[in-house]
From TrEMBL:
InterPro entries: Cyt/Met_Dipeptidase, Peptidase_M20, Peptidase_M20_dimer. Keywords: Hydrolase, Metal-binding, Protease. This is Dipeptidase. It comes from the Bacteria. GO terms for biological process: proteolysis. It comes from Acuticoccus sediminis. GO terms for molecular function: metal ion binding; peptidase activity.
Length: 457
């Protein structure tokens, strides 16, 4: 592709250095000990946005970590796009498993290693570099652009909905382009057209007024851990199907066409399973991709109680605890599925046990991009022109709360344009970002803005 903006980007020797400087800031949102790193990251982003020509550069908040916002509104009569990303990252722990310091980004074998380089600082940097190049070369953007860089994505976007309500004027747009979201694979051009929703719960089961000596009371009173294990086992049948009454009632079944499209994707299930050291398992009658993308789940994330320290302790625990998350598909309401889950746990608990279910968040609904949305068409065209082949439409088993929030709070749809990849160990030690994706992303974002400018005219 010959394009003056892309030529400018290819000649810019500072892009990687700027990404490394951005990724070196420890912007961990979940731990208050990183408050200084969060503030330093916001300061860096605000300075960068002001320097490249954006106006109304500011911080907005709604009771949590502030977001960074900015805008360029000089394309009279053209649509406005909200470019979304997040600057917060996961904690780097366990530190001893990293091969290099998590906040000292290091290039090895064509990859940049460091916490947050893939999720989401690399993809955000691509978007900002392309916007900066347009303003440097042409003095304008093809369309109007507002920017929202969130500081709470890694903790569930806790205040994003309130932020949208409070600051609607700063975020109003015709559609959202998300730099967050991740590609399915590096070897197959794809566009994400749907994500599952989720919700999380903590369950406590109590069987006695206090912990008891296992010799003096063992065999004569119930054990909270054993009762919790039996209770949790009722959530699924022997084949792995969710056994919660009514949980599937609102599920919108995948169409024959959609299932055929999934089946046509080049997916090596055996290699995928070998890569994680697991065997196929799940709801009967569905393929692995269908289970991941269009079927709901109830997952156990943690189970504890009694004594878990070094050595042993002869105790009968009076309490046991479990963490549960659900993944939801289109047409399922997190409030309704949560109520069904709680009703199941109470109905199947033994009569002598006290059960408490705490909803850890409001949950996020599943989201699907309208198949005929013009932004989706533009993204598909930009990716197709970059790679020389039309991208496949895929879904994501994970959750992007922002898409459902923007749809409900702002009335706009979201299309992802991310160049991180699902295998880049984000949330784990040795997170990395492919440098090839940096080059591909710069071209694709340049093409996308040109296409959107053409749509506007």
């Amino acid at each position: 592709m010959t394009d003056p903006v892309l030529d400018h980007l290819r000649a810019d020797g500072g892009i990687l250095a700027r990404l490394k400087a951005y990724a070196s800031l420890p912007s961990v949102s979940t731990d208050p000990a990183y408050a200084e790193g969060m503030a330093s990251t916001r300061a860096l982003l605000k300075a960068r946005l002001a320097n490249i020509g954006f106006t109304r550069v500011d911080e907005i908040e709604a009771g949590g970590h502030p977001a960074v916002v900015a805008e360029w509104m000089g394309a009279e009569g053209a649509p406005t796009y909200l470019v979304y990303g997040h600057y917060d990252v996961q904690p780097p722990d366990p530190l001893e498993l990293w091969h290099s310091a998590p906040f000292e980004p290091e290039v090895r074998d064509g990859r940049l290693y460091g916490r947050g380089v893939s999720d989401d600082k690399g993809p955000v940097s691509i978007a900002l570099e392309v916007l900066a190049a347009f303003l440097a070369v042409e003095g304008r953007l093809p369309v109007n652009v507002r920017i929202l860089l969130e500081g709470e994505e890694e903790i569930g976007s806790r205040t994003l909905a309130r932020m949208c309500e409070r600051h609607r004027d700063r975020l109003a747009a015709d559609a959202v382009i998300s730099a967050d979201g991740a590609r399915w694979r590096a070897d197959l051009p794809t566009v994400n057209v749907g994500t599952r929703g989720n919700a999380g719960y903590e369950v406590t089961l109590r069987t006695a007024g206090k912990d008891l000596h296992s010799g003096r009371y063992g065999g004569a009173v119930p054990n909270a851990l054993a009762e919790m294990a039996r209770l949790l086992a009722t959530l699924h049948d022997a084949d792995g199907r969710i056994a919660v009454a009514g949980f599937h009632d609102d599920v919108r079944e995948a169409s024959a066409e959609e299932r055929a499209a999934f089946a046509a994707l080049p997916f090596d299930e055996a290699a995928w399973l070998a890569g994680i050291g697991a065997e196929a398992h799940g709801e009967p009658g569905f393929t692995t991709l269908e289970r991941l993308w269009v079927r709901p789940t109830v997952e156990l994330n943690g189970l504890w109680g009694g004594y878990t320290g070094p050595g042993g302790k002869t105790v009968i625990p009076c309490e046991a605890h479990a963490k549960i998350t659900t993944r939801l598909v289109p047409n399922q309401d997190p409030a309704r599925t949560g109520a069904l889950l709680e009703a199941h746990l109470r109905a199947h608990a033994p009569p002598f046990a006290e059960v408490t279910v705490v909803d850890q968040d409001r949950g996020s609904a599943a989201y699907e991009v309208p198949p005929d949305h013009p932004l989706l068409a533009a993204v598909e065209r930009a990716i197709g022109e970059t790679y020389g082949t039309r991208p496949a439409r895929v879904k994501v088993g994970a959750t992007l709360p922002l898409a459902a929030i923007f749809k409900q709070a702002l009335g706009v749809d979201t299309v992802t344009m991310s160049f991180s990849t699902a295998d880049e160990d984000f949330h784990a030690p040795n997170e990395f970002f492919r440098l090839a994706a940096l080059e591909e992303g710069l071209e694709a974002w340049t093409r996308l803005l040109r296409i959107l400018g053409g749509q506007a005219t």
